[in-house]
Amino acid sequence: MLIQCPRCGNETRTAQLLSPLGEIMVSGPADSSPLPISAQVCVACGHIDLYAPQSFDLPEQQKCAEPVTLPDVVGNVLPPAATSGIS
Questions:
Q1: Which ranges of the chain have pLDDT less than 70?
Q2: CATH number belonging to domain 1-53
């Protein structure tokens, strides 16, 4: 598939982003491996668009065994002056 430059409409080429330490990677959700970022570089004007991978392998969602109830802490958090006008 040919990707055209959004700036001038000419052809682009796919390139890898490299540093002295190797490929530039993007990390996804927890428990997934980082994946390389790719770049579309215009052969005419030099415009560059960066692309992250379209998908990561998502870990299975964990379900809570029982619902969690949060305590009512509003009265303990606000100073007495702030609660005096509340009815």
A1: 1, 55-87
A2: 2.20.25
